[in-house]
Amino acid sequence: MNRIVSIFRPNGRRAFASSAVTPSSSLLPDRSLPLSQPPPANPSWESQEELVEDYDPSVNGYYPVTVGDLLGQRYQVLCKLGWGVYSTVWLVRDTLSKTPAYHALKILTNVATEASTLHELDFLLRMRDASPQHPGYPHVVHLRDHFIQDGPHGRHLCLVMEPLLQDLRSFSIRWNHRVLPHPLVKHLTRQILLGLQYLHDECNIIHTDIKNSNIMLVPPGGADAFLTNMNVDNSPVEKSVVPGPNGSTVTLYRTQPIQLPLPDWSSSPDSLDPWRETQVKIGDVGVACWASHVDKHFTDIIQNPALRAPEVALGAGWGKPADIWSLGCTVYELYAGRPVMPPGTEDWQVITFQVMCFGDMPPELLKRAKYRDVFYKPDGTLKISADFRADIEKYIRRHRSPDVSLLIDFLRATLTLDPAKRPTCRDLLAHPWLAM
């Protein structure tokens, strides 16, 4: 089966969610361009979970999990950690282990399992085995086991991985104005870059979906000990039985990302010391791509529109530099507490927003842009006026970080419009801003 559902939902819902979030303002004015579907003010938790209609095997075919299920003849389901367009993710306990042992179990939909165009298992195997001594190896998620689970409507690939805590998106919500301490942002950026360098240089993988909701925090002091102390075996779960497709019912479980305990940092807000043990990993390579086979990827339009590189939006050919662009957007949001572009940005708005923020597109990029006519008139002017110009430097300087000039230089490098001039991970790891 080669049919694949779209990465991004036409109704504007995010491909991945770990908690209900109301979009913050962006670098651009709220009314720079109309957003066709503003989010509801107080969405129900059920509306933030996977789509019920996707339990239909003819659409996508989620596996109907029940907390307490024993899957793969050894993994007992404890609670739901998250979901994606192609999967749900659960915290499980290994019943064959003599001591408490916990894992994250990602259960792919039947459509994703049978698709010949998705290669998540292959990517995870490469990530696990390629180069364990590389400094970026600890900063990507690792596969522990995999098996096929038969469901009522077909097969489901199950990926057993190390259990991780909340993602950086939900973590940032815990901070005033979603602004993380500046030393922590720098600390996390270095780790993300190391993980991305490992994917690019050692694994030949382009992630294609770098964003704060795909960067996961690591349990401090070891996952098994941490989760045992959290008493996760007895965690309360919230569920709702709702009408499903074809006259069925579906049991939805509320996502319960496990929070990272915060250290005592208030006495030294400008010091890295409270955060030295804080670690992150890049997760979710479900829509990744082999760097040497970009032409065989199942879609040429990758990335969430709000984090989409200009060469991707224009159809000008993309590669590893596209991940660098998304990294820059992610770092900016962690630092400033607001995204570069509004979370509801749609495909047809991307280039106009980018011109507003970063200036006119390079002529050489436009020459090879097969989607140029989507954004530009025959005379070369934008179809949507970009008279307003945002000043990214102004917004960064508001936070008065002592090394703000270096940060601005770092972000300008990652957000270079011409992908040929965008730095590599190796280049960025040598940037003065990351000097610890």
From TrEMBL:
<dbReference type="InterPro" id="IPR000719">
    <property type="entry name" value="Prot_kinase_dom"/>
</dbReference>
<dbReference type="GO" id="GO:0005634">
    <property type="term" value="C:nucleus"/>
</dbReference>
<dbReference type="InterPro" id="IPR051334">
    <property type="entry name" value="SRPK"/>
</dbReference>
<dbReference type="InterPro" id="IPR011009">
    <property type="entry name" value="Kinase-like_dom_sf"/>
</dbReference>
<dbReference type="GO" id="GO:0004674">
    <property type="term" value="F:protein serine/threonine kinase activity"/>
</dbReference>
<dbReference type="GO" id="GO:0050684">
    <property type="term" value="P:regulation of mRNA processing"/>
</dbReference>
<keyword id="KW-0418">Kinase</keyword>
<feature type="compositionally biased region" description="Low complexity">
    <location>
        <begin position="23"/>
        <end position="35"/>
    </location>
</feature>
<keyword id="KW-0067">ATP-binding</keyword>
<dbReference type="Pfam" id="PF00069">
    <property type="entry name" value="Pkinase"/>
</dbReference>
<dbReference type="GO" id="GO:0005737">
    <property type="term" value="C:cytoplasm"/>
</dbReference>
<dbReference type="GO" id="GO:0000245">
    <property type="term" value="P:spliceosomal complex assembly"/>
</dbReference>
<feature type="region of interest" description="Disordered">
    <location>
        <begin position="23"/>
        <end position="46"/>
    </location>
</feature>
<feature type="domain" description="Protein kinase">
    <location>
        <begin position="75"/>
        <end position="434"/>
    </location>
</feature>
<dbReference type="GO" id="GO:0005524">
    <property type="term" value="F:ATP binding"/>
</dbReference>
<keyword id="KW-0808">Transferase</keyword>
<protein>
    <recommendedName>
        <fullName>non-specific serine/threonine protein kinase</fullName>
        <ecNumber>2.7.11.1</ecNumber>
    </recommendedName>
</protein>
<keyword id="KW-0547">Nucleotide-binding</keyword>
<keyword id="KW-0723">Serine/threonine-protein kinase</keyword>
<dbReference type="InterPro" id="IPR008271">
    <property type="entry name" value="Ser/Thr_kinase_AS"/>
</dbReference>
